[in-house]
């Protein structure tokens, strides 16, 4: 019998998907919103135990005496992929590559594994979604066969670890982490508990052996990485692989990188021979035409440290029939487009209230940075006035709600890239810097001045 004044331990229920604990059973987990996943597992642990000092793995040393050899990146031989990683693959690093099904993740990583096997020792590819024969056919198609490239098809964590012990690879590619299960924990295959356990185990093995590990992850219909948020905290690098299905262009972007710059971008083109890097992608995002047309403006975006030329197009058409005006966006941030559209109408005095407005980017590129605001505003005004912008001109700058045009970072790199591509004038915010040789800068403080200058 418990002593007076001491509450007895109450039985708890724990979610098999995310580990959420509840004193009573509920049909839907309040944490991960999964149905029917709470199971009774006795009373939760009470109190905290004192922890005493124990053995250390290595003594602490002055930071200047820490060796750097084990933390240097090893190039993969694919320049666009190395650019995203910050130089290459770091021994012991764990990478998470996520993207939609059929986008080209497995093809690119198979080529990466072949390059690493040829230059840095054995590489192991473990597929949980395809058979070994299917992966072999893909390898033959893209020319990724090598004696040091090993292949296995497994869905059990213990079997994956056994292959690692047998091959002792310098690189492990697991495709995908959601298809591998650990018998040591409960939970459905691909659930949060299983994914967390598998990722934690492989991360520990990678750090212990100095083995670079690449985990392929699924994405939800909203584009987020499937599984617990802890997965992104466990790994060292998070890479998103995206692109339009109807386009051959693929964009590889690092959203987290402990060994290099984040938000760096690599451009690839997918074809019958695999995924090929595109070192100069600016030409893919700009239409080539003899004469300028209304509703089109060239801007320069900055993806990481790489300036890219991109074309923003707009179409303004009469609503007709007295219905509500329509706003459609492709490749741009819809909230940003709505804000710029309102500023153009209010501050630029361009009548848009009774017109449909369509805005899009060219070539399948997604533009999210505020530096494209000025180009978008000019494209909308050009389409509304049915007047083309001057040929050979680029524009960049952030547009505020009062109509002012603000400076953006990396103006020098943007102007240098535009000059390299043959553009001779640039519409920019005040104090944007010096112009490259052969380029003329047109500084405008607000939208009214920009429209007055151009129209």
TrEMBL record:
Protein name: DNA repair protein RadA
Family statement: Belongs to the RecA family. RadA subfamily.
A GO molecular-function annotation: hydrolase activity
Domain of life: Bacteria
HAMAP family from the UniProt entry: RadA_bact
Its job: DNA-dependent ATPase involved in processing of recombination intermediates, plays a role in repairing DNA breaks. Stimulates the branch migration of RecA-mediated strand transfer reactions, allowing the 3' invading strand to extend heteroduplex DNA faster. Binds ssDNA in the presence of ADP but not other nucleotides, has ATPase activity that is stimulated by ssDNA and various branched DNA structures, but inhibited by SSB. Does not have RecA's homology-searching function.
Residues engaged in binding ATP: 99-106
BP GO terms, sorted: recombinational repair
GO CC aspect terms: cytosol
Span of domain RecA family profile: 70-219
Source organism (scientific name): Blastococcus saxobsidens (strain DD2)
Keywords recorded for this protein, A-Z: ATP-binding, DNA damage, DNA repair, DNA-binding, Hydrolase, Metal-binding, Nucleotide-binding, Stress response, Zinc, Zinc-finger
Domain notes: The middle region has homology to RecA with ATPase motifs including the RadA KNRFG motif, while the C-terminus is homologous to Lon protease.
InterPro entries per UniProt: AAA+_ATPase, DNA_repair_RadA, P-loop_NTPase, RecA_ATP-bd, Ribosomal_Su5_D2-typ_SF, Ribsml_uS5_D2-typ_fold_subgr, Rubredoxin_2
SMART domains membership: AAA
Gene3D superfamilies according to UniProt: 3.30.230.10, P-loop containing nucleotide triphosphate hydrolases (3.40.50.300)
PANTHER family attached to this UniProt entry: DNA REPAIR PROTEIN RADA (PTHR32472), DNA REPAIR PROTEIN RADA-LIKE PROTEIN (PTHR32472:SF10)
Positions occupied by motif RadA KNRFG motif: 256-260
Annotated segments matching region Lon-protease-like: 356-455
């Amino acid at each position: 019998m418990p002593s007076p004044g001491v509450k007895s331990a109450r039985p708890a229920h724990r979610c098999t998907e995310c580990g959420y604990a509840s004193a009573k059973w509920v049909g839907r987990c309040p944490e991960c919103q999964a149905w029917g996943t709470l199971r009774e597992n006795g009373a939760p642990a009470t109190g905290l135990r004192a922890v005493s000092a124990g053995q250390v793995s290595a003594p602490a040393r002055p930071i200047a005496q820490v060796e750097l050899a084990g933390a240097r990146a090893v190039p993969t031989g694919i320049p666009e992929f190395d650019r995203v990683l910050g130089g290459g693959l770091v021994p012991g690093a764990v990478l998470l590559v996520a993207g939609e099904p059929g986008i080209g993740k497995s093809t690119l990583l198979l080529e990466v594994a072949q390059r690493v096997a040829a230059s840095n020792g054995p590489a192991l590819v473990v597929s949980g979604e395809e058979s070994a024969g299917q992966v072999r056919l893909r390898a033959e198609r893209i020319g990724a066969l090598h004696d040091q490239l090993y292949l296995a098809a497994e869905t059990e964590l213990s079997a994956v670890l056994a292959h690692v012990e047998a091959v002792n690879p310098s690189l492990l590619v697991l495709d995908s982490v959601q298809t591998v299960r650990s018998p040591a924990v409960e939970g459905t295959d691909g659930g949060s508990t299983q994914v967390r356990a598998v990722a934690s185990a492989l991360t520990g093995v990678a750090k212990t052996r100095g083995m670079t590990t690449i985990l392929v992850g699924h994405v939800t219909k909203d584009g987020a990485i499937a599984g617990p948020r802890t997965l992104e905290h466990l790994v060292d690098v998070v890479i998103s692989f995206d692109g339009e299905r109807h386009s051959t262009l693929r964009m590889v972007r690092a959203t987290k990188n402990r060994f290099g710059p984040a938000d760096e971008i690599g451009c690839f083109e997918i074809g019958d021979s695999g995924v090929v890097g595109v070192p100069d992608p600016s030409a893919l995002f700009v239409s080539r035409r003899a004469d300028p047309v209304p509703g089109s403006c060239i801007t320069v975006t900055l993806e990481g440290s790489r300036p890219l030329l991109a074309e923003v197009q707009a179409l303004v058409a009469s609503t007709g029939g007295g219905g509500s005006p329509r706003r459609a966006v492709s490749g741009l941030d819809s909230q940003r487009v709505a804000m710029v559209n309102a500023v153009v109408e209010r501050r630029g005095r361009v009548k848009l209230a009774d017109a449909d407005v369509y805005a899009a980017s060219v070539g399948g590129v997604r533009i999210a940075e505020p530096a494209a605001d000025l180009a978008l505003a000019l494209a909308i005004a050009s389409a509304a006035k049915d007047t083309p912008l001057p040929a050979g001109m680029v524009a960049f700058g952030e547009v505020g709600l009062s109509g002012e045009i603000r400076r953006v970072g990396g103006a020098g790199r943007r102007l240098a890239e535009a000059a390299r591509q043959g553009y001779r004038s640039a519409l920019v915010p005040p104090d944007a810097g010096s112009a490259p040789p052969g380029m003329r800068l047109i500084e405008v403080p607000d939208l009214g001045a920009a429209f007055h200058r151009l129209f």
